[in-house]
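Memo to structure team: turn this sequence into structure tokens by end of day. - J.P.
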Amino acid sequence: MYSVPKYTNLQQLYRRGIKLLQRMGVEAPEIEAKVLMLKATGLSEEKFFAAPERELTKREEKNFWRLLEKRLSGFPLSYVVGEKEFWSLALKTLAGVFIPRPETELLVEKVLELSSRGEETIVDIGTGSGNIAVALAKELPRARIIAADISARAVKAARLNARIHKTGNIQFVRGNLYSALAGLNLEKKVDFVVCNPPYVTPQEWAGLPGPIRNHEPR
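Reply from structure team:
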């Protein structure tokens, strides 16, 4: 535990969090400490920086230490706080489902660049948390989007994110790659197929950071 000595305000605990994350070797300790603090207190970023001397409640301090200790034990930040921003959308992240990567936004950008913005059909293979499908559904409300994944947990996460962001134009199906689309009568009717599958080789796996190897799906 790291709860001694007691830190009485936001700034003090925030700075302590930064130091502990630095010791762990986190690349952006200031950002991660802030994310953990906002999650623990329920404050907006604006309120957090507007009142750094604000005293913490016992519950807020306990929440911060609980989250920080989980992060220091090696859990990815997105699993610790339960969400990840993608395309300016706060997406829920469930253990056992890949965490969305910022570079995947390039796929969304490319579809939007080529899209007619009309009643198109888009297939998302390996939807994971639904990040691509939900982002496209928000940008292209007239499109029909079919999001598929072999993992039941991934489909659950994607459905949750679609519901949170009120995207009613996504159909979720479960199955391996294109086999999930059988019976949907999509032959010659699909305008875009998007996919960002896992592409790490067995040889590369051992060299990945611990949080990925130990907590994200292999």
